[in-house]
Amino acid sequence: MSADPTGFRGAKNPVVRSEPSTRLRDLGVRVCELDRDIEADLVLFRAGLAEFAAGWMREHARRIAVSQNQVTLKLGRKRVAELKGQIDDHIRIVPDLIESEFTLERYGQGIQGSSGQVSAVVARQFEQGVRRVLATVYPVLEDSGYARDEHFLDDEPAGASPRPRFAPPFELPPDLDDLVQRIADRVTDRKVVEAKIAAHEVQSHKVQAARLWDEA
């Protein structure tokens, strides 16, 4: 006789044993706790990234101005001063851009992959998100005549844009890197708990099916 997937065989109206309902409730509570922890870390990350992005955009604009010196010299002192003011104006809205990008839904609950893959997925998603935020300064520069070159960061996946693609490296400050790793660890824990909930529900459905069949 093949094994009964529910663990029960034969008897009419068997005594059905299942995990206590508190187990599922405890797992749900743990997911909520992890979500709160991830959101708390995202708050710190968003604040740190806003500070980092402000300095990065100013320094990056200067690097491009020196690299494309003919454009800079053609603009002249007055127009360059105006451009620097426009960059500062853009930097003032960067915290809102970061708030929209780095959400719990996108960087916690919505992460796809198994628990063993999550850390790499989270790291890659954070890098893409940071690049998207930093790249928002480029239209300001392009409006003043600067062209995309090897100093420009990719702001989209490769192949998603007809523009030339560049991917110069950049480094986040160590405290932001540590937050990304901590968030990745929490998201991994969340995936483990979600898997336990799914397994619990599968077993519960088997138990319910067995009871329905035997009591019919």
Task: Compose a concise summary of this entry.
The protein has helices at residues 21-67, 69-101, 104-109, 118-134, 138-143, 174-215. It has 216 residues and is mostly helical.
Give an overview of the whole structure.
The chain has 216 residues and is mostly helical. It has a domain at 41-187. It is 70% helix and 0% strand. The protein contains six helices and no strands. It has helices at 21-67, 69-101, 104-109, 118-134, 138-143, 174-215. Helix 1 (21-67) packs antiparallel against helix 2. The longest helix is centred in the N-terminal third of the chain and has 47 residues, at 21-67. The two termini are 22 Å apart. Residues 1-18 and 157-166 have low confidence and may be disordered.
Cα Rg: 26 Å
Shape: elongated
Strand content: under 5%
Please provide the count of β strands: 0
Mean pLDDT across every amino acid position:
84
Kindly report how far apart the N and C termini lie.
22 Å
> Helix and strand string, N-terminal first?
HHHHHH
